[in-house]
Amino acid sequence: MRFSSFIPPAHPADKLFKEFVRRLETSSNGRVKVEYYGTGALGKAAEQYEITTEGLADLAITCCGYTGCRFPVALGVQLPFFSDSAETGSKILTELLRQGFFKDEFADVVYLFPLATTPSRIFSNKKVTRVEDFRGMRIFGGEAVFIDVCEALGAVPISIGTPDVYMALQRRTLDAGLAPWTPGIAAWKWQEVTRWVIDVPILSGWHCNVVMNRQSWEKVPPDIRKKWQPLFPEYAHKFAVLYDTLDKVMRRRYEKYPGGEIVSFSEAEMRRLAEMMIPVWEKWVRENGDEGRRMYLAYVKIMKKLGKKIWVKLPGLYRE
Length: 320
Fold this sequence. Notes:
Elements: E1 2-4, H1 12-27, E2 35-37, H2 48-53, E3 59-63, H3 86-98, E4 109-116, E5 120-124, E6 138-140, H4 144-153, E7 156-158, H5 162-171, E8 176-179, H6 181-187, E9 196-203, E10 207-213, H7 214-219, H8 222-228, H9 231-255, E11 261-263, H10 267-276, H11 278-287, H12 289-306
Parallel strand pairs: 1-2, 1-3, 6-7, 6-8, 9-11
Antiparallel strand pairs: 3-10, 4-10, 5-8, 5-9
């Protein structure tokens, strides 16, 4: 079988994916062989889901944000304040999957496990200390949820190629870009062309996952599939811990970066920001109908069970 990844070999996640592939093989006692194709060898990041359904790859890493119109319910994970870390996001996703959410959107494949990432921060050339400061800012991003967030804040969403963002920030044709700490610093080096990082979860983590071609899954003998099942929650947790750890390392690195400054909102300003995000959440719920309402209610219960703060309390749906 062929496992497709768009992750470059320098990224620590690449090593963990290769470890996962080895575990699939050893769990099968050598009856299943899995070849790992990294760095987009079988297809670009946005093509991963398609090459899996078409059978070019048997397993692949996909991100819902790249083909958002195909996964509107799954994209709810990216809503602002949805989660405070990759680990929290992974736990929420795992429980939502257990309850049967996303099954229609991923009917073409077998959803093995989620790859929840850390929330995005705002790498900015404008200091933002209150919600009014967002008005008129030109911010890089392209997902549907992000566009709704910008509209709520009075900001201007700018969609350009990621490689072009560095130059746009340097030339001040962009005011800010959204990214988790790790890609923002380690991959894109935005700390070189911005002055502040606004440490608020304006977008929660990306909803990525590992999926498998349905026909390929059926070819795997039932006894091997049974041995594989415990690996999925194990690696969902391992990847979440990895992403959170990397972000903490990058945040500490930024704290030592000359000229850089991290800006955090006060509790009162965070509440104001969360209130401004209510229309964004309500639009997502409305567009996804009964499934959206059910997922919000399930999300609230999961967050309460995890002992996490629920920032966005939707009128008519949220109950204390």
